[in-house]
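Progress note, sequence design subtask.
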């Protein structure tokens, strides 16, 4: 059974850093692109970063230069390193994978940035 489990969220001051992790199970992790989304209160879920099976990355303009997405296929884990955090980065962060046209989501991890 496919499962995604995020961790690493928390409370941090503006300008600080956090590293989120998403551990996948039940899939051949190395062949899939992975995605990080976030959803702030009262806002739609938005795509933050993605990483292809080959390690190519893309980022939302709002996080370029501050966030870095990486993966460790040996650990079936994708990471989101978040630096220079801003209050507007406060949200629940989710990782997701698309398998045969279906999107699978983790439970999310809360990131709260205080100013």
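Output:
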């Amino acid at each position: 059974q496919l499962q995604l489990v995020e961790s690493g969220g928390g409370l941090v001051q503006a300008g600080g850093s956090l590293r989120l992790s998403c551990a996948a199970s039940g899939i051949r992790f190395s062949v899939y692109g992975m995605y990080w989304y976030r959803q702030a209160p009262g806002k739609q879920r938005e795509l933050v970063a993605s990483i292809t099976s080959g390690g190519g990355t893309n980022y939302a303009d709002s996080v370029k230069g501050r966030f870095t997405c990486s993966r460790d296929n040996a650990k079936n884990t994708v990471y989101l390193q978040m630096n220079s955090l801003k209050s507007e980065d406060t949200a629940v962060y989710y990782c997701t994978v698309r398998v045969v046209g279906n999107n699978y989501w983790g439970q999310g991890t809360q990131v709260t940035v205080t100013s």
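The mean pLDDT is 97. Work on this subtask will continue into the next period as scheduled.
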